[in-house]
Hints:
By secondary structure, the protein is of the alpha/beta class. Helices cover 43% and strands 12% of the residues. A seven-stranded mixed β-sheet has the order 1-7-6-5-4-2-3, with helices on both faces. It has a four-stranded antiparallel β-sheet with strand order 8-9-11-10. Helix 4 packs antiparallel against helix 15 (369-403), helix 15 crosses helix 17 (473-492) and helix 16 (429-446) crosses helix 17 (473-492). Pyridoxal-5'-phosphate is lined by residues 99, 158-160, 202, 204, 255, 257-259, 284, 286-287, 313, 325. Pyridoxal-5'-phosphate binds at residues 99, 158-160, 202, 204, 255, 257-259, 284, 286-287, 313, 325.
Amino acid sequence: MNNKTPQDQPTPDTTHPGDIPAQQFRESMHRAADMIADYLEGVGEYPVVPKIEPGDVRKTLPAAPPRTGESLDAILDDYKRLIEPNTTHWNHPGFMAYFAITGSGPGIIGEALAAGLNVNAMLWRTGPAATELEEHVCDWLRRMIDLPDTFRGHLNDTASVTSMLAVAAARQRVREYEIRRRGMAGRSDLPPLTVYASDQAHSSIDKAAITLGIGLDNLRRIRSDDGFRLDIDALETAITADKAAGRRPICVVATAGTTSTTSVDPIRPIAELCEREGLWLHVDGAYGGSAAICPEYRKLLDGIELADSIVVNPHKWLFTPVDCSVMLVRDVDTLKEAFSVVPEYLKTADTGATNLMDYGVQLGRRFRALKLWMVMRAFGVEGLQQRIRFHCELARELAAWIEAEPSFELSAPVPFSTVCFRATPAGSPAAQDAFNERLLAAVNAKGPVFLSHTKLRERYVIHAAIGNLRTTQAHVEQAWQLVREAYREIAKG
Length: 493
Ligand code: PLP
């Protein structure tokens, strides 16, 4: 009998403090898969928002970590008992606040597989499949929204980071500033740089201005028109005034699907103005970019093909688990010039390869493309279009019910799947605002739905966003019924 252990099967070393045994991992992972499947099937039974106060979750947890390891079964039991019920359920069909999202089944599987590989795709060499799949899924999205092949794409965590990188690329293009070498501090020799976005643009653009040293004073918030779309004449006037005052305009951010009302700025005239003025055009399509995979919604984004950079968030409305933000850039070399720093220990001989670390701030990059790839393949372009169209139809139905109800009004047009509305009881504008605030709190306290709010022209408005794959017409009807019920209760006093 040969007692020798073959070289490829080393003797198990029971003293070695390694990972958990494979069999234990397999069993716990199967249990976790069952738990996720059960959760997704039954998530609608929970109130969308847990009825807890800040600090309640920590109170249930031991002050110190366990001294010795615990069984995975016990930890999973605690997950089920302490974590799952104390979560705000973004995967709930009644979640209609902010922008509703979905961590779909295929996306969840992709996320789990990515965790298994645990790749850090900073260089092509350290993650060839992750790098190339990332470029590839971004290229698929580019095709899906009918953009020319001059755009190159990669993934970031969020639209906030993507927009910040875009404004950084715009700043890099102003060569005489030598931003990389000289920075922004103490540059009294040069005129201040200015950036433009509408008064409806997302707060991430303010953060980009803060982060990049442009400063909020140099971010021009251009007034929007009656449809909450950037006023092109006001934009032109602001740019002209800044140039006359010796400032240096560098970038316009147009939004395709603003956060409050999902309005779309007039992208083509903005692009033409940017072209004339030599300005970088960044399009924030974090939400609306997803709808552009349907030709009828792509029309609303006419001119987006002229942008210098675009952000679309599959983690918003392409059913991909958080986080996943696509950045598409026409002049990718300028973005690379802005950020590429290659120390000795990161040099490779792989010429012609994309090294993702060159296109942003972070070195480490996780394998985000896998989940987007799974989603795109499992649903297909037509499946994704069908789902987006269904959400938009539900929103139009809700808008029609609101319009037919004398004590309510629509507060903005409904181009996609988000509806802004308010109750209009008799009283001053301030009293109406207070009424709507109470109305929203009363609806959300009931449990089955979660709506949010915004302010439009200083007035308090309720915001219902449909975007979860589990949301059906019955859920939207229920939301509307709860709103009307709450109205009657508050009106009674
Ligand atoms: N842009 C728009 C239009 C948004 O609505 C949002 C968030 O809702 C963002 C950017 C920021 O997205 P992220 O959370 O990915 O940074």
